[in-house]
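Single-chain item
Fold in token form
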Amino acid sequence: MSSRRGVGLSAFQNRTALSTSYASHGASLRSTHLTSLQNQLSVFQSLLHNFALQHGEEIKSNPTFRSEFARMCNAIGVDPLAGSNVKGKGGKSGGKGSWWAQMLGGDVNDFYFELAVRVVELCRATRGENGGLIGIAECRERVSKGKGIGGGIDVSDDDILRAVKSLQPLGSGFSVIMVGSKQMIRSTPKGLNTDQSTVLEAIQVLGYVTCSMLQDNLRWESARAETVIADLLADSLVWVDAQASEDEYWSPMFMGSDD
């Protein structure tokens, strides 16, 4: 009778060696690809640097050009505002400052913080009108006109979004939310619940709502509709028109909106 001792152990050893070889080859490929990607990213960042220096004045003065340039930065993982307000011991700047400041000097960096201050001032000035919610487009228009907050400056929606983003590390309570199809700046710590968001979306579409409209279209009980409306009124997020047969509730955020 023939003996087959050692065949199983040999096959196991061969499979182990093969698996080790595959793992080593895979690690080598990953390392090669990573090095290649890092080299490509370095080239892209160098080209972006040269582009920023060549077109610095246009980036500073043209909001559309500035917006497109910022998108180019984001595409390769460069956050233009990163590190802009990082401080070390003794209150001194700890680092080289933001990427804007490094590439273009302090002007663009200061621009976004000046814009953020104007956004804060505008939101506070209009809180009695809109309850702390203002559309990005309306904010841009008001800041561009400069009424009540100093001279106007030429900005884009993207500039407004970046200015609000720059406030987040401060824990200021400012954030951008979606209400229906519109981007809104929320400047109050209190958030919107689901029912409040639903009513504001309905106003955005229909222009106004009534309690009976909410009951008929959303199948809400009378108490639910009245409670949501009362909360929105208390926060100045809607205004009431009592001249119709039934009270109509309008939102100042969407009055005169083309959206």
